[in-house]
Amino acid sequence: MQETHLVYCLLGLPSAFSQWLLHVVAALIQETCGAVHICPIVFLEDLRKSWTQREGRPVLIFSDIPEAKLVQIAMATGVPTVLAYEAMPDALQYAMATREIDLRQGVRFLSQSYATLERAFLSPAVTTVGPSVFTMRLRHFLPALAEGYRIELPQPSLERLCARLIGPGGESGDETVRENIARHIPLAKRDPRRVLSPDHLDLAHKALDQFAGLTRGEPLRRVTLPYNLLPDWDHPSNFLNGPIDLTGPRRLLTAGHTLHLPAGHWRAHFNIEVADNISGNDLEVDILLGDESRGGVAAPLPAFGGYEFSFDFETNDAFPPIQARVVLNEGAIEGELTIEDIVFERRDVAVPDHSAPPALPSSD
Predict the structure, then answer these.
(1) Quick check: helix, strand or coil at residue 305?
(2) Orientation of helix 88-99 relative to helix 16-33, angle to 10°
(3) Is residue 77 within 8 Å of residue 5, measured between CB atoms?
(4) Is 97 exposed, middle or buried (CB count within 10 Å of its CB: 0-12, 13-18, 19+)?
(5) Pairing relationship of beta strands 81-84 and 7-12 according to DSSP bridges
(6) Contact, 320 vs 290, CB < 8 A?
(7) 311: buried, middle or exposed (CB in 10 Å: 19+, 13-18, 0-12)?
(8) What pTM did the predictor assign?
(9) Digit-coded pLDDT (tens) for 273-314
C-alpha cells in the first residue's frame, strides 16, 4: 500500500461528468490507498463536522459550489485537486433535472458554480479536466487522472479499476470516458436541445457563455446581465420582456436574484431607453449582494431617448447572488422605460489570494 495524502479534493460544475468523477476518484483512492471518507460539502463547517467521522481514512472533498474558504484551503495547502467542467448546455440541463429547478434557477446556480470556482480555474496547481477527455479510453484516462492526484497506479490496479467501472471482462479499459459516464449516469445521455427550447438555450448562452473563459484559465472581466433575467414586479412571476409602463405610483420596477459574480471591484453600467416621460421622473438604482446594497445612484430620467449611467460597487463573496434593483421614485401619469442592458465591468484583476488560509481541521 502506497503512502497516502491526508486529503484529496474534487471540484466541479454541477454536471454528470463531476458526479461520475466523484465515483471514479473514490474508487481510485480505494484501489490504491484503501478505504476513503467522502465529504460532499459546501461550507468549511461541513468539513469540520465530517472530519470527525473519517476514522483515520484519507478524505475526498467534493464541492460544486464551495465557499471561498474551501478553495483557499485547497490552493494554499497544496491539497491534490482536480477541477471538472462540462459543456454549458449539458451541465445546465443536468443541474435542472437533478435539482428540479427551472431555467432561470439553473442559470443562476451554474453562474454561482463558475464564480465560486474562479480561483481554482485560474490556479496552475489544479488539474483541470473537461470535454476533451471524453473520447479517451479508460486505460489512458485513469493513469492521467491518478497523476493529477499524485497517486501511483500500477497496471494490476488499473485493470481492476477498469473492470470495476465497466464490469466483468472490462480489464482492458476499452470503453471511453463518454461511454462510461452514460453507463453510470443515464441523464448524461439526454440532448439539451431536446430538453430546452431554442429560446431557453439562447438565454442560457447569453448569460453563461461569458463565464466560459474561466475553463481556459482566463479571469472573468466583464459580465452582461440579460434583461430577461430581471423579474417584472408589475407582473409577478414574469420577467422583463420589453418596455415597462411607468404609469402608476412610486414603486419597485425590478429586483431579484440573477447571476453571481466573483469577489472583486466592479462597475455597473446601465443602458436604458425612455419614451414619453413628459412630466419628468427619476430612478433609484442599486446593486445588492444577496440582500445587502453595495452601491447605487439616483438618476433623473430624460423625456425621450437613451440614457446611460454607471457606478462602482464591491463584492467580497461570490456565494450570494447579485440583484439589480430599480425603483421609480415618483408616481407617473405617462411614459415607458426599457432596460436595454446592464453590464458589470471588473475594475481589478483576478489574482491568487496570498492571505493566510483557514487551517485544515486537526487530524486528531
Answers:
(1) strand
(2) 90
(3) no
(4) middle
(5) parallel
(6) yes
(7) middle
(8) 0.90
(9) 999 989 889 899 999 999 999 999 998 888 999 989 999 999
